[in-house]
Amino acid sequence: MTKFLLWCLLLVGCDIHPDDSGSSDSDSAVDTGPVVPTCASAMEGGRTIKLCGASPSEYVGTGLSFGEIEGVSTLAVGSYTYEEGQPIAITLVQDFSADAWLSSSWQVAGTSDADTSRFGYHLDISGDLDGDGSADLAATAHATALGSVLIFDGPLVAGLSPTDYDAVLSGDLMYRLGAQTGVVPDIDADGDDELMVVTALGTGAATDSYLYQGPVVTGELADASAYGELIEAVAGA
Asked: Residue 198 in contact with residue 206, Cβ under 8 Å?
């Protein structure tokens, strides 16, 4: 059953979605105004298991990534908020039994501020961005002034704060960085994985993809390679 759940989570072949009720599973819930998605859910063994936010302003489940943390299969689930001073977290689930969905998890958690706004909207834990043999975490915070992708070098341990990042990638005044992010397997055979990021205009519309070649360290949009140009260079090599 564990394998089935992971297969569903990765391939979106089962019911994985932000809960659209924003309230308890009660047929008699009182209408308190606009609905807010605060839970990520998945079907397992005929039951729905949920991971929910700590406040009505905390959105859960847009960022999902599967990988291994020190050899242990791990699902990372991001939650974010638009409001400063509200809880934000990336929960790392390592025990996939329904009863332990919450209790066995650990988090990269804190409160949102100007440097971590919308932290965890997209994330990836599937790669090694500095070639040290440990999985790293890349998480967007793209509602910051220039847009950001925060890099947490492995080995990842419990108790991290969103401000404990080891490197930060940032956009510019025209193209905000971090609408999406994802690890690209080591395409230049130097031992380090690469990181793809998507920029967005101030309106939120996605624009272009850029690739930061590993080892991924603090940099700006000007330090990245345009995706199309890189593919042409690799194809011509």
From this structure: yes
The burial of 95, by beta-carbon neighbours within 10 Å (0-12 exposed, 13-18 middle, 19 or more buried), is given as: middle
Name the token pair of 235: 């194809």
Characterize the bridge pairing of strands 136-141 and 148-152.
antiparallel
* Contact (Cβ atoms closer than 8 angstroms) between residue 102 and residue 140: no
| Torsions phi, psi for 151 (to 5 deg) | -110, 125
Regarding predicted confidence, which is higher, 71 or 33? 71
d(CA 220, CA 194): 15
Helix, strand, coil percentages, rounded to 5, for the chain:
10, 40, 45
Q: Could you tell me if 143 and 114 are in contact, meaning their C-beta atoms sit under 8 angstroms apart?
A: no
- Report how far residue 64's alpha carbon sits from residue 202's, in angstroms, rounded to the nearest whole number: 24
- Amino acid 23 reads S
Percentage of the chain lying above the pLDDT 90 cut: 24
| Residue tagged 């330090």 (tokens) | 223
CA-to-CA distance for 157 and 165, rounded, in angstroms?
A: 12
Evaluate if residue 209 carries a pLDDT over 80: yes
